[in-house]
Specification:
Largest sheet of chain A: 7 strands, antiparallel
Strand content of chain A: 35-45%
Shape of chain A: globular
Number of helices of chain A: 3
Oligomer: homodimer
Number of domains of chain A: 1
Structural class of chain A: alpha+beta
CATH class of chain A: Alpha Beta
Radius of gyration of chain A: 16 Å
CATH superfamily of chain A: START domain
Amino acid sequence: MAEPSVVHSTFVLERSFPLPPERVFAAFSDPGKKRRWFAEGEHQNDIEEFSMEFRAGGEERLRYRMGETTPFPGVELTNEGRYHDIVPNRRIVMALTMHLGGRCISVALATMELLPTASGTDLLFTHQGAYFEGSGGPELRQQGWRVLFDSLERELAQAAGIGDGQSEH
Amino acid sequence: MAEPSVVHSTFVLERSFPLPPERVFAAFSDPGKKRRWFAEGEHQNDIEEFSMEFRAGGEERLRYRMGETTPFPGVELTNEGRYHDIVPNRRIVMALTMHLGGRCISVALATMELLPTASGTDLLFTHQGAYFEGSGGPELRQQGWRVLFDSLERELAQAAGIGDGQSEH
């Protein structure tokens, strides 16, 4: 038969934070906080739009132009999300769609679980993706989320007034 | 750390049909056809609502009461879908959410790929699921899709005016 045109792949990332689940959850539920680590982050992209409605059924939308140092300078990238399940301080499940230059390159289901530990909170992030033509594939997406969670660590370290002592394990 | 509250699981189902991709695709894109095999099927449930808007970004909604022979007779079950990527006669990617008695029990990313073969079309169905409390887990969902694709086979056999000669492999 013909070759499938979709690559399916699941990856899991874990981070530990020396903060209670409520503080970590707030970095996802508060639009101002999420804008800082998720939309602005370290990448020098030109944000044209960021909006989110944090409720089951609510939508999130981030649109920007790729920066000069990226493979596609000036090209429009859109990340759209829909919140499907929210359990306060415990989990968030979203469908995520990425468009590059107006073309859908991937769809994913992302689960963020917050697990209380003796020293704070473990974030367990499971990303179940479907990758289309021109997406760059799962490794690139995983790398993108690592960068985002580095940014989340900085956001939370700053909020807690502590150093950059978190670790990925 | 505490136990995760979500089970993630991916399964793949394949079916072969002695019909060109256009005919198989129509069973997904035509609301009348899809209602027959997807909403009505064999199960003796009481359909209260079925609607679909077949376009990227469009929504699908099936709501019914569980039948007398099911584990939850009379309980409302809602299947909501959102079309994220559609390539005519080739693939459909949807996010699917299931609510039982008003409570979200699972979210999934479902990819239907149609691959032309010498004798017709292979359907490659990839289901990437996240299962919550009370969902019954991935095996139950996989069994549900097998039943649905049996129903799709009947729909297509009837449409083609042929016998029940399809096989799952």
